[in-house]
What we know:
The chain folds into two domains: 112 residues, no CATH class; 42 residues, no CATH class. 6% of the residues lie in helices and 45% in strands. It is built from two helices and twelve strands, in the order E-E-E-E-E-E-E-E-E-H-E-E-H-E. The strands form two sheets. Strands 1, 2, 3, 4, 5, 6, 7, 8 and 9 form a nine-stranded antiparallel β-sheet that branches. Strands 11-10-12 form a three-stranded antiparallel β-sheet, covered by helices on one side. A hairpin with a 4-residue loop joins strand 3 and strand 4. The longest helix has 7 residues.
Amino acid sequence: xxxxxxxxxxxxxxxxxxxxxxxxxxxxxxxxxxxxxxxxxxxxxxxxxxxxxxxxxxxxxxxxxxxxxxxxxxxxxxxxxxxxxxxxxxxxxxxxxxxxxxxxxxxxxxxxxxxxxxxxxxxxxxxxxxxxxxxxxxxxxxxxxxxxxxxxxxxxxxxxxxxxxxxxxxxxxxxxxxxxxxxxxxxxxxx
Length: 191
C-alpha cells in the first residue's frame, strides 16, 4: 500500500506531482464536502493495483470524466492541471491532492471515505444504501440486516433541491441539520 498527500503549501508551480500510464475515471463528486475522486481499478490483463486520486476542497473545476493516462501538474498556487495523453490541460482548483494505491477491488469503498480519526463508522455510513453505479466514495452496499436494524425509512437532509445527507434514523438526520434552510424528507425503504 502506498499513500501520498500534498497540501497547497507543498505544491510548487511547474511540478508534476503524479503521473500514470493507466486509465482513470471520475469516480465520485460530493458537493457537500467539495471532494472529487478519480479511480483507476486493477484489471485482470492490466494493472494489479487500484489507485484512488482525491482532490479537496475543490473550489473550481474544468475536467473530463475519463483519462486514458493521467498526469497531475501544479499550474499555480491552488491550481492543478490534469493532463491526458492528448496534452490538453484541464484544471481543478483545490487546497490538497492525494493518492492511495492498494489491492482493493472495483466495488470497495475508497480509503478516503473513512474520515473519522478513530476509523470506526457504522456500516450504513460507509456504504451506499441503494447500490447503483454512482460509485461515490462508498461503493459497497449495506446488507438487509444492517439496514433493518435501524428501520424502514431513510431520512434525507435536503438543502434546497440537493441532498446533503441520508440517515437511517430521524435523530441522526436532525443532528445533521445545520441551518433553517435545510429540511428532512422521509423516504420509505423496501427491504
